[in-house]
């Protein structure tokens, strides 16, 4: 997501800001900008694309001054462009703001500010903050920021500076991280520690709802109601590489642990108080929604598995026939479209060549295309008719984790949304899914506690030649995703089977000690799955079963049992995914593999 850097002291701010932004590049971004106070006024330079583009613009036209803020933007509201890049200013140029996160009520605020005569230059939610500061400024930037924050809804980190008070930066943390770097006659603020490590190892980590008033000589912290807070200095002992990973050994592990937040972010603003799925980004008429008579879901790899879950929930809730297919096959199959076929493409990166080609084929054939993607401004997002963004934040490890769970969330929301506007085929299941979605961040957080158990299991089986994943219904889809994860980073041969299909051939491969991971979260299929576990046990397989807490039977059937916090079986794939990701991760670590960059694979597959 976006990166923020702020500096006040005696050095030339531009160098500090650019260096800090470079250290935040790992977070992913599409444009960058800096604002520096030159003694008279605030000067701003912003550029679409890599930081190098901004640096080239500054070459020979640098911004002198010792107070400044910088930003790398990961587009959310408004496409990536020079104008939408941060920092953003007010009408007078006296105030500038850098922001990470989302201001949920920005549309209403923007309308109010426009009515009051403010002129906007970007499509961003952030710009409302600069204009609010301008309209509420009372001679004291800190006091003004308290007043502004009281008007904002959403998750954000903000850094504000003003030409009226050039000795000061004010920073606010509400859900999005911020750290203050403590120097000698200089201070810093940034979204993450790597941006600071060149200058200081002493930091204040701002907590939820805290505000920092930063001058060159001192940093004072407050709660949003103005109560002073005394902070403890944290001395950072990690190196830069570890700091980028937030102290985790690998990006994959960090991203696994980010899932409760990623899921919560993807749900933000999309569940109404009267229990409806809200997707204002779909510009649909009722007639269009009601007219859809078949759905094609197209994606690759992990996104395809999300699509397989999507098919089951969409068919159950809408009774529209759904096909799901990998994009590399779909694009050459000459699929059959009706006049009202909807095509749903799913892609984390939004750049996967086969998925993009499938999207183009579908549009050329007259189908309406909805994209589920994690990257605003990606090719898929630009070319689709409608876009549902997953707010997972940048995913750096090649193995997809938080992108997958957020794709599932987007698909659950989409299915409920479509079912609700068409007149639900199954209102009870919609209610169950929506209630489950509300609790999902918590369930995903709890299931992370399975890490020690998955580590122990992974260490036992890391050197086996092959492993089997079995399940029925949605557990079969979860098994496919578990097997893919294990293959791609541990290089263990792993296969997933619909549990009932084993005896039609694959059972021949089950022998003494062969690891079988059995998923048993689908209550209506539980007994059948238990029978299939008994079949592999009878061939001396070593079975790890994943089932709900409270299952009293499984311990007598499987060799090992992992108990999961209970959620609606419809949402089980989002919960089961986490221990299976951990299993793959720990097996890969045990084998000494390059977890984040597995052999032969790329994060974004932009070739056929
Ligand atoms: O960016 P996309 O979602 O389109 O990528 C699709 C697949 O390449 C991707 O999910 C891949 O399977 C992952 N590496 C799996 O972890």
UniProtKB/TrEMBL annotation:
<dbReference type="GO" id="GO:0006002">
    <property type="term" value="P:fructose 6-phosphate metabolic process"/>
</dbReference>
<dbReference type="InterPro" id="IPR035466">
    <property type="entry name" value="GlmS/AgaS_SIS"/>
</dbReference>
<dbReference type="InterPro" id="IPR029055">
    <property type="entry name" value="Ntn_hydrolases_N"/>
</dbReference>
<dbReference type="InterPro" id="IPR017932">
    <property type="entry name" value="GATase_2_dom"/>
</dbReference>
<feature type="domain" description="SIS">
    <location>
        <begin position="284"/>
        <end position="424"/>
    </location>
</feature>
<comment type="subunit">
    <text>Homodimer.</text>
</comment>
<dbReference type="GO" id="GO:0004360">
    <property type="term" value="F:glutamine-fructose-6-phosphate transaminase (isomerizing) activity"/>
</dbReference>
<dbReference type="GO" id="GO:0006047">
    <property type="term" value="P:UDP-N-acetylglucosamine metabolic process"/>
</dbReference>
<keyword id="KW-0032">Aminotransferase</keyword>
<feature type="domain" description="SIS">
    <location>
        <begin position="457"/>
        <end position="598"/>
    </location>
</feature>
<dbReference type="Pfam" id="PF01380">
    <property type="entry name" value="SIS"/>
</dbReference>
<keyword id="KW-0963">Cytoplasm</keyword>
<keyword id="KW-0808">Transferase</keyword>
<dbReference type="GO" id="GO:0005975">
    <property type="term" value="P:carbohydrate metabolic process"/>
</dbReference>
<dbReference type="InterPro" id="IPR005855">
    <property type="entry name" value="GFAT"/>
</dbReference>
<feature type="active site" description="For Fru-6P isomerization activity">
    <location>
        <position position="603"/>
    </location>
</feature>
<dbReference type="InterPro" id="IPR047084">
    <property type="entry name" value="GFAT_N"/>
</dbReference>
<keyword id="KW-0677">Repeat</keyword>
<dbReference type="GO" id="GO:0005829">
    <property type="term" value="C:cytosol"/>
</dbReference>
<protein>
    <recommendedName>
        <fullName>Glutamine--fructose-6-phosphate aminotransferase [isomerizing]</fullName>
        <ecNumber>2.6.1.16</ecNumber>
    </recommendedName>
</protein>
<feature type="active site" description="Nucleophile; for GATase activity">
    <location>
        <position position="2"/>
    </location>
</feature>
<comment type="function">
    <text>Catalyzes the first step in hexosamine metabolism, converting fructose-6P into glucosamine-6P using glutamine as a nitrogen source.</text>
</comment>
<dbReference type="GO" id="GO:0006487">
    <property type="term" value="P:protein N-linked glycosylation"/>
</dbReference>
<dbReference type="InterPro" id="IPR035490">
    <property type="entry name" value="GlmS/FrlB_SIS"/>
</dbReference>
<dbReference type="InterPro" id="IPR001347">
    <property type="entry name" value="SIS_dom"/>
</dbReference>
<dbReference type="Pfam" id="PF13522">
    <property type="entry name" value="GATase_6"/>
</dbReference>
<keyword id="KW-0315">Glutamine amidotransferase</keyword>
<dbReference type="InterPro" id="IPR046348">
    <property type="entry name" value="SIS_dom_sf"/>
</dbReference>
<feature type="domain" description="Glutamine amidotransferase type-2">
    <location>
        <begin position="2"/>
        <end position="217"/>
    </location>
</feature>
<dbReference type="GO" id="GO:0097367">
    <property type="term" value="F:carbohydrate derivative binding"/>
</dbReference>
């Amino acid at each position: 997501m976006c990166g923020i850097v702020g500096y006040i002291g005696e050095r030339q701010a531009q160098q500090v800001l650019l260096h800090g932004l470079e250290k935040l590049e790992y977070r992913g971004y599409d444009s960058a900008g800096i604002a520096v106070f030159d003694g008279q006024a605030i000067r701003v330079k912003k550029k679409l694309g890599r930081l190098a583009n901004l640096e080239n613009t500054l070459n020979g036209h640098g911004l002198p001054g010792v107070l400044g803020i910088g930003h790398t933007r990961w587009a959310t509201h408004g496409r990536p462009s020079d104008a939408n890049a941060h920092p953003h200013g007010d009408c007078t140029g006296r105030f500038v703001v850098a922001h990470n996160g989302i201001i949920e009520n920005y549309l209403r605020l923007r309308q109010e500010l426009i009515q009051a005569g403010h002129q906007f230059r970007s499509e961003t939610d952030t710009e409302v903050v600069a204009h609010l500061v301008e309209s509420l400024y009372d001679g004291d930037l800190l006091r003004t920021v308290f007043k502004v924050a009281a008007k904002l809804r959403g998750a954000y980190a903000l850094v504000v500076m003003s030409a009226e008070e050039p000795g000061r930066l004010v920073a606010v943390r509400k859900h999005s991280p911020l750290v203050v770097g403590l120097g000698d006659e200089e201070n810093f603020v940034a979204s993450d520690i790597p941006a600071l490590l060149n200058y200081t190892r002493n930091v204040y980590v701002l907590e939820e709802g805290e505000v920092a008033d930063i001058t060159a000589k001192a940093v004072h912290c407050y709660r949003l109601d103005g109560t002073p807070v005394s902070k403890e200095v944290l001395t950072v002992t990690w190196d830069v590489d570890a700091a980028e990973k937030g102290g985790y050994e690998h990006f994959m592990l960090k991203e696994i642990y980010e899932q409760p937040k990623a899921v919560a972010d993807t749900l933000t603003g999309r569940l109404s108080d009267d229990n409806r799925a809200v997707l204002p980004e779909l510009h649909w008429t009722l007639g269009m929604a009601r007219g859809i008579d078949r759905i094609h879901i197209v994606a690759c790899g992990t996104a395809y598995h999300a699509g397989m879950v999507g098919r089951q929930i969409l068919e159950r809730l809408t009774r529209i026939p759904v096909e799901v297919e990998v994009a590399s096959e779909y694009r050459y199959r000459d699929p059959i479209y009706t006049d009202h076929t909807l095509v749903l493409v799913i892609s984390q990166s939004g750049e996967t060549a086969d998925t993009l080609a499938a999207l183009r084929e579908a549009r050329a054939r007259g189908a309406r295309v909805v994209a589920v993607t994690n990257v605003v401004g990606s090719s898929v997002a630009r070319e689709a008719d409608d876009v549902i963004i997953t707010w997972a934040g940048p995913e750096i490890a090649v193995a997809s984790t938080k992108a997958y769970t957020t794709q599932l969330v987007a698909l659950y929301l989409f299915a409920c949304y479509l079912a609700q506007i068409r007149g639900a085929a199954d209102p009870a299941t919609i209610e169950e899914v929506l209630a489950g979605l509300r609790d999902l961040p918590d369930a995903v957080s709890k299931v992370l506690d399975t890490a020690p158990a998955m580590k122990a299991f992974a260490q036992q089986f890391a050197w086996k030649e092959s492993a089997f994943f079995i399940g029925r219904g949605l557990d079969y889809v979860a098994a496919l995703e578990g097997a893919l994860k294990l293959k791609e980073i541990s290089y263990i041969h792993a296969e997933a089977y619909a549990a009932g299909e084993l005896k039609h051939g694959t059972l021949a491969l089950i022998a003494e000690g062969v690891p079988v991971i059995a998923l048993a979260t689908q209550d209506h299929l539980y007994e059948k799955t238990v029978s299939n576990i008994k079949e592999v046990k009878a061939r001396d397989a070593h079975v790890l079963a994943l089932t709900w807490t409270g299952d009293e039977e499984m311990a007598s059937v499987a060799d090992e049992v992992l108990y999961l916090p209970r959620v609606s079986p419809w949402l089980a794939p989002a919960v089961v995914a986490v221990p299976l990701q951990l299993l793959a991760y720990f097996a890969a670590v045990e084998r000494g593999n390059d977890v984040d960059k597995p052999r032969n694979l790329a994060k974004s597959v932009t070739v056929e």
